[in-house]
Amino acid sequence: MMEQEKLLMPMLSRRQLLKMAGGTLTVGLLSACASPTAPSAGTGGDSGSAAPAAGMTVTFWRMPYATTASPMAKEELDKFYGEQMPAMLPDNISVETVEVADAPFDKIQASLAAGQPPDITIVDQTWVSPLLALSAINAMPDGLIDVVGSFGSFTNDFFRVGEEGTIYILPWGWWERGVFYNLGLLSEHGYAPEDLPNNLADLIPFAQELTVWPEGAAEPTLTAWPLAGGTTFDFYTALVDNLGGFWWLNDSASGFGEPEWEEAWRMTLAMFDTFHLDAREGLDAIERFYGGKSYFLPQQLWVGNVLRRDYPDLEWGVMTHPTPNGKAPYGWQEAHTGWGNLSTKSGADLDATWEVWKVLYSPEWTRANALALNYIPARLEAQNQEPFVAENQQWAGAIVKHNVGNSVCPGFWPADMWKIINTAWEQVYLTNADVAETLQGAKREADALLAVSPEIQATIITKQDYVDHPDWTEGKIPIAAWWDGTYGSYLTAEQQAELG
Question: 43: pLDDT confidence band, cut at 50, 70 and 90?
Answer without folding.
Answer: very low
